[in-house]
Design goal:
Elements (H helix, E strand, L loop, with lengths): L6 E2 L3 E2 L5 H11 L1 H17 L1 H21 L1 H7 L1 H13 L2 H10 L4 E2 L6 E2 L2 E9 L2 E7 L6 H5 L2 H7 L4 E8 L2 E7 L25 E6 L4 E4 L7 E4 L8 H9 L1 H5 L3 E6 L16 E3 L2 H25 L12 E7 L2 H4 L4 H17 L5 E7 L15 E5 L4 H8 L22 E5 L6 E6 L4 H11 L9 E2 L4 E2 L1
Parallel strand pairs: 11-15, 11-16, 12-13, 12-14, 14-15
Antiparallel strand pairs: 1-2, 3-4, 5-6, 6-8, 7-8, 9-10, 9-18, 16-17, 17-18, 19-20
Helix pairs in contact: 2-3, 3-4, 11-13
InterPro entries: FtsK/SpoIIIE/SftA, FtsK_dom, P-loop_NTPase
Protein name: FtsK/SpoIIIE domain-containing protein
Keywords: ATP-binding, Coiled coil, Membrane, Nucleotide-binding, Transmembrane, Transmembrane helix
Length: 468
């Protein structure tokens, strides 16, 4: 067809959509904008203005009473809706949203019509006062990279601490706007359950995330915990927090904790009575891993003899947790022979230990491939404050920093200890978290309440030479 009739070859229009059609489409997408006023006007016309005013005043009164009488349920069910409404129609209203994206180079020009195409804001959720979650429909020709490359500029334009972007589904993005630090106050240490029945090894609560939800970690099944963080960032909280949560099971012999602390045992000395085995040198660490591997093989043989696929947690088949505080001492800085044996033993336990209840938790300062060759075997990963941007992707997976896990920008001081990121398994979007701070007094309490009694006749803890 000819150029002057409004079309290009392929059926692409050269005229922009009319404003009247855009207005109708906008009203169709936002029915409350016209339906609520229409209902009020209809009620006024039928019953008069006084009943309508009384109805509105009654609704407001009920909300005020609810707000004062029972704040927890009001904050959970009503406040997020009111907050999201305010943010949607004030902070992200149409003209402001379009100008914001234009200034951040997140709009596109339609070269046929000359129209500026603005990504559509489809939904705003404000679950907490500090976090907004936006669902955005990209314009044709954009991709995730265009947004992640401009996330820092978008954060500055919004006066926000952080903006994280992830793909929700084709053509749609999830944009998390962190308006302020949600962890201004340190969290207390995780509680010690009163009984074994209260312990869930697949959901140990060790802190809170930025949405106010508990941070749960698993030490059973296919879960192996990996924690990266520079010195002073709170890695010890991911050691003692889970131990406090599973304390009654340690006391009753349902969990056996084997600890490798190759830094001379300084971190774990205070809680040594909790551990089934403990090693503080490379030689002792290898002996501990060999023993764990042999115990796993024996458990596999028992399962075959009983024709069972998976061990059942009990006194005769406890959960074995191997905690390695500073993996690099075994996997990078040991001699070549010791390093190779340590990696082989850990790999064998991590790949074969699921059915026999063997799991590993590893902690490291530098999560590079050269330091931790087996990091891909860890299924649950947490990244606290680190010293290099590259460490974030090494710890959490490729693209994690582009999606908002700015762990390298967390200040390395006591005030920010325990703050980090983990990737949400459902959305692949990084979530900021803060771990409960475990003090020496909290560890002492754990030892007093949950240290297991040694078996009769056992006076020495193997591999350490320490009296139990």
């Amino acid at each position: 067809m000819s150029k002057g009739n409004g079309y290009k070859p392929g059926g692409r229009a050269t005229r922009p959509t009319g404003r009247d059609m855009k207005t109708l489409a906008w009203l169709w997408r936002h029915p409350l904008v016209w339906s609520v006023p229409a209902v009020l006007v209809a009620g006024w016309a039928r019953y008069g203005w006084l009943p309508v005013a009384y109805t509105l005043a009654g609704a407001v009164g009920v909300l005020l009473v609810w707000w004062r009488v029972h704040p927890p349920t009001f904050d959970r069910w009503v406040l997020p809706t009111l907050r999201a409404f305010k943010r949607r129609w004030w902070d992200y209203r149409g003209g402001l949203w379009g100008a914001l994206l234009f200034e951040c180079d997140l709009t596109r020009d339609n070269r046929l019509t000359g129209e500026i195409l603005v990504p559509r804001l489809e939904r705003v959720r404000a679950v907490t006062p500090s976090i907004d979650v936006l669902r955005v429909r990209m314009v044709r020709g954009q991709d995730l990279r265009a947004w992640t490359d401009r996330s820092e500029a978008l954060a500055e334009a919004l006066c926000a601490h952080r903006v994280a972007v992830a793909k929700a589904r084709p053509g749609r993005l999830t944009v998390v706007v962190e308006r302020e630090n949600p962890f201004a106050v340190p969290l207390p240490a995780p509680e010690i359950p009163t009984s074994v029945d209260e312990v869930d090894l697949s959901a140990l609560d060790i802190g809170d995330d930025e949405f106010g939800q508990p941070v749960l970690v698993s030490v059973t099944g296919t879960s192996h915990l990996f924690v990266a963080g520079a010195t002073g960032t709170g890695k010890s909280s991911t050691i003692w927090g889970p131990l406090r949560q599973m304390g009654p099971m340690i006391r009753d012999g349902l969990v056996r904790v084997r600890v490798i602390d190759p830094k001379g045992g300084t971190e774990t000395e205070i809680g040594k009575e909790l551990f089934y085995r403990r090693a503080v040198t490379t030689e002792d660490a290898l002996e501990l891993l060999r023993e764990a591997r042999e115990d796993m093989k024996a458990a596999q043989q028992r399962l075959r003899g009983d024709k069972m696929r998976r061990a059942v947690l009990g006194p005769d088949s406890p959960q074995d947790l191997i905690m390695v505080d500073e993996l690099a001492m075994l996997t990078a800085f040991a001699s070549r022979g010791d390093r190779g044996e340590a990696i082989a033993l850990l790999s064998e336990i991590m790949t074969q230990g699921r059915n026999t209840l063997f799991n590993v938790a590893g902690y490291v300062q530098e999560p590079s491939k050269d330091v931790v060759e087996i990091r891909e075997l860890f299924t649950t990963r947490i990244c606290l404050g680190v010293t290099a941007a590259s460490h974030v992707d090494m710890a959490l997976g490729d693209g994690a920093r582009d999606r908002g896990a700015l762990a390298d920008e967390i200040p390395l001081d006591e005030e920010h200890a325990g703050i980090g990121f983990r990737v949400d398994k459902g959305s692949r979007l990084p979530r900021r978290l803060r771990l409960g701070h475990t003090t020496d007094e909290d560890i002492t309490e754990l030892v007093k309440r949950c240290a297991p009694l040694p078996p009769a006749g056992l006076a020495v803890v193997r591999n350490t030479g320490e009296v139990a």
